[in-house]
Amino acid sequence: MNNNYPIWRDANRLLLEVEQAVKHFPRYHKYTLGTELRRQAMLICQLVARAWREKTQNLDILKRLVATVDDLKIQLQLGKELQVFQNFSVFERLAVLTVTVGKQSGGWLRHSQSKQPEVSRFA
């Protein structure tokens, strides 16, 4: 994939921003919450790429992508409450990027669902 696709560009930017933020976490949180944030951000990038490539499994991958973004939001909120971010603006940048990727992935999922043929309840 390339950076011409907004969700890919934003997911990559989110991953890079998470990596930078975790560098400044207190040691205890760097290897607990920091590791989990890094893993989730990487998984988001992987799922975006996979959904783009694998058109047949697209819906399942997109559902997992939406859930992963939601999980990251919860982890970011925990980090804010634990005050692990260097300052509020670091948290705010990550939160805005996560919400942006969440909106894009939700829209992608809705669009893909609308393209699926309806299955009759009586079939």
List unreliable stretches of 5+ residues: none
- Average pLDDT confidence is 93
In angstroms, what separates the terminal alpha carbons? 39 Å
CATH-level-4 superfamily name: 23S rRNA-intervening sequence
Class of secondary structure makeup = mainly alpha
Please name the CATH topology: de novo design (two linked rop proteins)
CATH class equals Mainly Alpha
What's the domain count?
A: 1
The share of residues in helices is over 70%
Backbone CA Rg: 16 Å
Major β-sheet profile:
none
Q: Please state the overall shape, judged from the principal axes of the Cα atoms.
A: elongated
Return the string of H and E elements: HHHHH
CATH architectural designation? Up-down Bundle
- The tally of beta strands, per DSSP, is 0
Strand content: under 5%
Count of helical segments?
5
Keywords:
123 residues, de novo design (two linked rop proteins), 5 helices, single chain, mainly alpha, elongated
Give structural notes:
Helices cover 78% and strands 0% of the residues. The mean pLDDT is 93. The chain is built from five helices and no strands. It has one domain (6-110): 23S rRNA-intervening sequence (de novo design (two linked rop proteins), Up-down Bundle). The chain is an all-alpha fold. Helix 4 packs antiparallel against helix 5 (88-115). It has helices spanning 6-23, 27-30, 33-53, 58-82, 88-115. It is elongated and about 50 Å long.
